[in-house]
Amino acid sequence: MAILFKKITRPVDLTDLDSAKKTYPQITYQYSSPSTLDEIALEIGQTSGVSEGEAFSVLKDFRTLLKKKLIDGRTVNISGLGYFYLAAQSKGTDAAEDFTAADITGLRICFRANKDIRLNTGTTTRTDGLSLKDVDRVNKANSAGGNDNPDDNNPDGKPDDGETPDPAA
User: Fold this and answer.
1) How would you classify the pairing of strands 21-27 and 82-90?
2) CB under 8 Å to 79, separation ≥6 — which residues?
3) Per-residue confidence of the chain (169 residues) as pLDDT tens digits?
4) What is the 3-state secondary structure (H, E, C) of the chain?
5) Angle at 85 between CA 5 and CA 83, to 5 degrees
6) CA 11/CA 21 separation, integer angstroms
């Protein structure tokens, strides 16, 4: 399966809505379903030699301990995977001395991937099976009675060099 993206147009300078606009890719998960804990446990069991139940149990324990460590005010570094950490949300105050813990409206769990698993559009990742598909082109081809295979890199019949245009260009 491919990584699906759609195109969005937004101002280059987000603080100035009248600034020049460019089109950027946005990954979409609209046409897929999330992987579940059961599915991950099954695959770990199939590849590691432990039972699916054991893998499931370990993953559930990891989830519980991850939350506990984050609530304890710590980051969690899983070597080879990445860092989990909390980020606070707030509407803010005009002066720093006016800000209190009561002004925090929510917490988000954030994740920073280790360099070993980060994805890029370079040739090494593409040879590992990375494929990007423009859902607008796939949907347009489908509605026109064209190719209905979302895994086809070239639904519009034009030559495709396999690269997504660089939004910074």
Assistant:
1) unpaired
2) 114
3) 677 888 888 888 888 888 899 888 888 888 778 788 889 999 999 999 899 999 999 999 999 999 999 999 999 999 889 999 999 999 999 989 999 999 999 999 999 999 888 877 665 555 677 778 888 887 777 777 655 454 444 444 433 444 444 444 4
4) CCEEEEEEEEECCCCCCCCCEEEEEEECCCCCCCCCHHHHHHHHHHHHCCCHHHHHHHHHHHHHHHHHHHHCCCCEEECCCEEEEEEEEECCCCCHHHCCHHHEEEEEEEEEECCCCCCCCCHHHHHCCCCEEEHHHHHHHHHCCCCCCCCCCCCCCCCCCCCCCCCCC
5) 70
6) 4
Neighbours of 122 (CB within 10 A): 9
